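Retro notes (design track)

What went well: tokenization of the new backbones is finally stable.
What didn't: we kept losing track of which sequence belonged to which structure.
Fix going forward: every design gets posted as structure first, then sequence, in one message. First example under the new rule, 331 residues:
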């Protein structure tokens, strides 16, 4: 048995604006609530003409106001850019506006090109240490609901009835260990890293070091009444992975973006590989067969599915098709 949730990056439709993209995201969240999905998350991407969600906490608040039951959260806030105290304040405020419905997902990547990262971190004296930030964030969240707050720390108000549920997003055993060590939920980003062995090791690491707690698995998925139609839609999707001379690598949606990333990073040499993104596709039945296999194999009890950027109507239809079976058999 497994539950389904959704992640949306607010893709901007070709020839349309961010206004349309964000409207599509809100409509998708409403439909997800109607269909019985467990949670609806939005992403954080910067300096991108293709993706409209640059400030997930703002979009979360709007979706909370336009829904009434579904959990809503960030998938995720890119912590390296922000003060942990401010992130705690924002999500405690959201948790006070919609008690029991807010998820705080934290990501480790920059979520944008080097120029955007530099702008976001312009007033930092040095590159932040993620684990130190992560520890501070937990401390601020805990202190806000403690019966006897630590007087050496400011309280990240307002004090919510309960803080947001906490999730660390990652795609490595190191991320799994960090989540387990701090008592957070772990979401393996299978939509970004589909390597089966890395997936296995990461999920097993989290279960072992968290005392048996199952991880959540995020995947890209697209369903259609016709498997051939689903394959045709997904065949148009591409990912361009750029490898820099300093050992860094990152995947982007267009070759021009990959080249621009290398330029902004100051790389003297780089190479770009065109790849097919890892997207589960086919009929709803075939996708659920694979989800059931993964659930049994790794003990996964929840999947967060990202509909790919194939058009608003197609994405909505996919979400509806995938909801039919879990509502009766898995939710």
């Amino acid at each position: 048995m497994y539950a389904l949730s959704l992640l949306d990056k607010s893709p901007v439709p070709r020839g349309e604006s961010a206004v349309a993209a964000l409207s599509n995201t809100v409509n998708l969240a409403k439909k997800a609530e109607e269909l019985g999905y467990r949670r609806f998350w939005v992403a954080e991407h910067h300096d991108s003409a293709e993706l409209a969600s640059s400030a997930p906490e703002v979009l979360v608040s709007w979706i909370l106001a336009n829904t009434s039951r579904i959990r809503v959260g960030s998938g995720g806030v890119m912590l390296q850019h922000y003060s942990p105290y401010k992130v705690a304040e924002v999500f405690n405020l959201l948790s006070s506006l919609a008690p029991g419905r807010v998820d705080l997902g934290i990501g480790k990547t920059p979520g944008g090109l080097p120029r955007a990262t530099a702008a976001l971190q312009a007033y930092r004296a040095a590159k932040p240490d993620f684990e130190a930030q992560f520890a501070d964030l937990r401390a601020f969240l805990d202190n806000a609901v403690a019966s006897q707050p630590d007087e050496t720390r400011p309280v990240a108000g307002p004090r919510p009835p309960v803080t947001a549920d906490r999730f660390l997003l990652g795609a490595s055993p190191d991320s799994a260990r960090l989540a387990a060590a701090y008592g957070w939920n772990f979401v393996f980003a299978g939509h970004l890293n589909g390597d089966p062995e890395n997936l296995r090791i990461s999920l097993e690491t989290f279960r072992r070091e968290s005392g048996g707690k199952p991880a959540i698995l995020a995947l890209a998925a697209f369903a259609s009444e016709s498997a051939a139609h689903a394959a045709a839609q997904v065949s148009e999707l591409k990912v361009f992975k750029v490898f820099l001379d300093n050992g860094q690598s990152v995947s982007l949606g267009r070759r021009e973006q990959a080249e621009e990333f290398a330029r902004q990073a100051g790389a003297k040499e780089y190479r770009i590989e065109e790849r097919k993104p890892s997207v589960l596709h086919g009929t709803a039945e075939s996708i659920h067969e694979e989800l059931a296999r993964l659930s049994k194999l790794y003990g996964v009890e929840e999947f967060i599915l990202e509909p790919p950027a194939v058009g608003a109507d197609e994405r909505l239809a996919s979400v509806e098709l995938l909801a039919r079976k879990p509502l009766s058999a898995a939710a």
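Added context from the reviewer: The radius of gyration is 19 Å.
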